[in-house]
Amino acid sequence: MGGARSGKSEFAERLVESFDSPKTFIATSEISDSEMRSRIEEHRRRRGMEWRTVEAPLDIASALDDLGDEEVAVLDCLTIWLSNLMLSEGETREGVDRLMLALERCRGSVVTVSNEVGQGIVPENPLARRFRDEHGRLNQRFAASCGLVVLVTAGLPLVLKGALPGSPA
Amino acid sequence: MGGARSGKSEFAERLVESFDSPKTFIATSEISDSEMRSRIEEHRRRRGMEWRTVEAPLDIASALDDLGDEEVAVLDCLTIWLSNLMLSEGETREGVDRLMLALERCRGSVVTVSNEVGQGIVPENPLARRFRDEHGRLNQRFAASCGLVVLVTAGLPLVLKGALPGSPA
Amino acid sequence: MGGARSGKSEFAERLVESFDSPKTFIATSEISDSEMRSRIEEHRRRRGMEWRTVEAPLDIASALDDLGDEEVAVLDCLTIWLSNLMLSEGETREGVDRLMLALERCRGSVVTVSNEVGQGIVPENPLARRFRDEHGRLNQRFAASCGLVVLVTAGLPLVLKGALPGSPA
Lengths: 169, 169, 169
Fold this sequence. Notes:
The structure is a homotrimer.
Chain A: H1 8-17, E1 23-27, H2 34-47, E2 51-55, H3 60-65, E3 72-76, H4 78-89, H5 93-105, E4 109-113, H6 126-145, E5 149-153, E6 156-161
Parallel strand pairs in A: 1-2, 1-3, 3-4
Antiparallel strand pairs in A: 5-6
């Protein structure tokens, strides 16, 4: 977890690079504008050729179901996925439940990238307020189900739960 | 302290539940719309019947004065109270000073919930900017006077000052 | 680093006060309105007379080049400087590179104050969004080049990298 441009995606990717396993990148962005397109291309350049990329703007659950036993995935990111879900279905409860179930039964390992979006002033826009609330709840559910939770600030990790691989027990 | 929907209220309530003392919930929300009403009802359901509830949208000081020696209270939350104060009195200095004095002489224990609101982009609205500044200062005064300060992110606590009950010294 | 009114400037100044060295305050604010003027006067009163003050709304690089071997400086703050740079030059790449080089060759020690601005909802304004992204990247570059990085919340420090002077190794 982290704020915008906090280095959280790069941190997640380095974490997965440290494993000697097949690697998958689950991308949630829909390539809708040139700003987004250049970000995605920057992401691809950074990751190199060892990775398989799956585009899943809405159906992350299937992408998780497809992961094999040894596979390690970066899911980047919950924030864009939740936004896609809200715009496409109007509500998020069912989609979120489906995702949490897929996460439970997933055979591979998943490093999930998510934004902290609730530390600014309350937005005036009711939809933004609702998004902020639902995103906060989603982050809580994910954090409860994960073994490791890291807050990234300016590229620096702060472990909120569990321990990073290689750190003393 | 924490962002919106970070799990900070639930964390505060669990902390108070762990004490074997009379429990008070000091609610600062004015029930002005249906969104707020459903949040408050969700809060009540979660707390159960063991709690006394005091509604104090403005006069938290009296609510603190009424706490007995053994009593443990959740004050939820500073952010809404400061917003109520600013809207009702136009300025906050006097109300904040009165609250800090009440906190000093309070005989019970108080677990205070507050938002971090200063980690987004500077708001364009001058009132929001002023609120953000005054809230930041209020958080600093509270943090200085408390024995325990915890930042909650995605439901996970990070101790900024003091130690949680039951943790090693 | 910290949010608005988090106590980060005061923390930086106390850190520098603890050194027995000549002290410089590098101020980035342009005194454009009365709100800003009163903030700056409050800052000056707090620091006292021992400090040299340099106003550098754009050219921090020269201010860093002027620091002597023993000198310790507070640079307050990166956020306002980046905003000044964006407004004055339209882009920031060159100015940021120049600053990073000045930081590398700087003979004194610099304690830099910066805001976390990426933990709210994505701003609707494209310029604010770009600022948020560039600021996040700048914070990452600074954090990578510094020996000590501290996140300040409600006046309380959380060490993200390195160790505070006087803390156990």
